[in-house]
Design a protein that fits this description.
6 helices, mainly alpha, Butyryl-CoA Dehydrogenase, subunit A, domain 3, disulfide bond, Invertase/methylesterase_inhib, Pla_a_1-like, single chain
Length: 189
């Protein structure tokens, strides 16, 4: 009987501890995003907070961030996921499906999309290198690799504008650019 009385109390304590950890993660996110957005005009506070807090929610409170290092790792992972998503979007745009809007894309735009896919694939390697460098506390190399990753979105957009074509990826490229900027700003804090 004593065990049954202890069980609800221990459950309540466990729930409070989990909520406290998630709350502390959110405080860390807000404070870090405030500093990042103050130090880098490319990083928008609301974007930074939403991106990191969404990742915490998606992880269902498992291992909430407790340090700036945790936020950097989380930010790089978010950026990698975003690049993978963009590669998938490009693949769908290039599919030869009569119901797909690809039939309205010029041959030049299709070639640009193929190049963009390659750029984003390469950027995944840069982000992996950045994560390894960060974990070994080589912050300079981590920053260089994130900057290289950041260029994928810029180069992709430039290819379309060089051919006077409208990019179907502008919003995605801008988001990717800002995610990289966020990672870079967090590393440099």
């Amino acid at each position: 009987m004593k065990f049954m009385a202890f069980y609800p109390l221990s459950l309540v304590i466990l729930i409070i501890l989990v909520l406290f950890q998630v709350s502390n993660g959110s405080d860390l996110v807000r404070e870090s995003c405030a500093k990042a957005s103050k130090n880098d005009p490319i990083v928008h506070y609301d974007f930074c907070v939403a991106s990191l807090e969404d990742a915490i929610i998606d992880s269902q409170g498992n291992n909430p961030p407790t340090s700036l290092g945790d936020l950097v790792a989380m930010s790089i992972q978010i950026t990698k996921s975003n690049a993978t998503n963009i590669i998938s979007i490009i693949s769908n745009l290039l599919k030869e499906d009569p119901t797909n809007s690809t039939k309205f894309l010029s041959q030049y735009s299709k070639e640009c999309l193929k190049d963009c896919s390659d750029l984003y694939s390469d950027s995944l390697s840069d982000l992996d290198d950045a994560m390894r460098a960060f974990e070994s506390q080589d912050f300079n190399t981590a920053s260089i690799k994130i900057s290289a990753s950041m260029e994928a979105s810029v180069t992709c957009e430039n290819q379309f504008s060089d051919g006077n074509e409208e990019s179907p990826l502008t919003d995605k490229d801008n988001t990717y650019f800002e995610l990289n900027a966020m990672s870079l700003a967090l590393i440099n804090m």
